[in-house]
Amino acid sequence: MTKKEFGPQPWLFPSPTVLVGTLVDGKADFAPYAWCGIAGGEPPAVSVAVRHQRHTLKGIRQNRAFSVNIPSVDLIRETDYCGMVSGAQADKVKDCGFKVYYGGLKTAPLIEQCPVNLECEVLHLLNVGIHMLVIGKIIQSHVSEDCLTDGQPDIMKIRPFVYSRGPAARYNAVGEVLGRAYDIGKGMKQ
Ligand SMILES: Cc1cc2nc3c(=O)[nH]c(=O)nc-3n(C[C@H](O)[C@H](O)[C@H](O)COP(=O)(O)O)c2cc1C
Which element (helix H / strand E) includes 58? Predict the structure, then answer.
């Protein structure tokens, strides 16, 4: 077996691609974040690693609230665009034609076209070098009805996409079903 060492790298393959929504000086802003994940189950929580200079972080600090919106492959161009311009310079909502709505948290803008939307309150801000790790407590989740199967969110209908940096930074679709979790390995139990 031959392995090449790369030194310490934050390489979790794959990374989700989400659009984080914030209200900055009263205006909705959205940007893609791939360094994010589930942070806990009780309370339900997510984490996003946000560079200190992001307009997004300004909104998070102003309101102690944000949203996580899961774009489907239909929004791949808009998502990528939102990662190349700052809300400090552009009106990304207008440029992308996002339909913005609000749930219970009036300072966490949500995108109607994204099949899954999570409203979050800031639980912790943790300084991790060049990033601020934002931990959000999820206070409500919204799922488009046409993305449900038997009343539950269905990844094959949500059609999210993932981000990876290698071999070139790019997006991949989520592929076919391989088996049932907590089931496919059962035959290996003694
Ligand atoms: C696919 C993708 C993933 C990204 N992930 C992150 C991330 O995890 N953390 C981060 O600070 N910036 C990330 N960025 C960069 C921000 O999205 C980008 O700087 C954006 O323009 C910030 O917008 P804002 O200034 O309106 O907050 C990512 C960009 C792309 C295209």
Answer: helix 55-63
The set of protein residues with a Cβ atom below 6 angstroms from ligand 1 is 17, 29, 31-35, 49-51, 54-56, 80, 83, 85-88, 163
Looking at ligand 1, which atom is closest to the CA of residue 32?
Answer: 17
**Measured on CA atoms in the order 53, 54, 55, 60, is the torsion positive or negative?**
negative
Give CA 134 to chain center in angstroms.
Answer: 12
The 10s digit of each residue's pLDDT in 86-133 is: 999 999 999 999 999 999 999 999 999 999 999 999 999 999 999 999
Domains and CATH numbers, the chain: 15-188 (2.30.110.10)
Which protein residue's CA is at the shortest distance from atom 23 of ligand 1? 86
pLDDT category of residue 190 using cuts at 50, 70 and 90: confident
